[in-house]
Write a structure and sequence with these properties.
Elements (H helix, E strand, L loop, with lengths): L2 H22 L15 H20 L15 H21 L1 H16 L4 H22 L10
Helix pairs in contact: 1-2, 3-4, 4-5
Length: 148
Amino acid sequence: MNKKFDRFTGILFLAVGTLFILESRKLSESAYGSGVGPDIFPMYLGIVLVLLSIRLFYETFKYQRDNGEKEKLDYKRFIIIAATALFYALFIESLGYVITTFIFLFVGFQTMEKGKVWISLLISSIFSGGVYFLFVEVLQGTLPPFPF
């Protein structure tokens, strides 16, 4: 772990999370025909991001002293995850939530740990389908539907 990078990232994500919370308060509190408004998800996402960034920043104080060795950064994985996130953002409306979330999670799992394809398929499908069902059917919210 790189202490300087983690501290900078923790502060950056703290600012982004705070911005999410503040800006979500400007959104309407309810949508027509929905019990859950468009402000809920960004607000909770911001809260989670703030809490995780505080934890990351706190963890940097526990790092042991390094021996001057430089840690090699894994650019290949970073580029794959960033490209998949861009794909997710660009195609969520046209392909729907379930399909794009499934693809994003599956590619992310396989990028982080090759192999265990069946477990990645199972977790990706259960999570994307489960969140869609919970949000759309139980909470009466709206997410981009299937394209067909």
